[in-house]
Amino acid sequence: MVSKILSYIVALIILLLLIGIGLQYYIFKPIKSKELICHKNKLLHKIDDDESVYVKIKGISCEFEKGMLIIEEQS
Fold it and tell me: Phi, psi at residue 63, to the nearest 5°?
C-alpha cells in the first residue's frame, strides 16, 4: 500500500518536473526579430543579429498588406 502511494508520488513529481522544464524552455526561448519591418510607412532595417536596433531607410516607403510587405521608392 505504501509502495503504491510512493510510486504515484514519484510519478507525479517526475511529471511536474517535465512540465516545468518544458515551460522553462518555451518561456526563455529567444525571440528572433525580423530583418525588415514596416512601421508607420517607413522601412526599418535591422543593424545587428544580436540586438534589436533598427535604422530607417531614406527614400523608401512601405505597406504591410494581406501578409505581404510592399516596398516602394519615393520620388
Answer: -140, 150
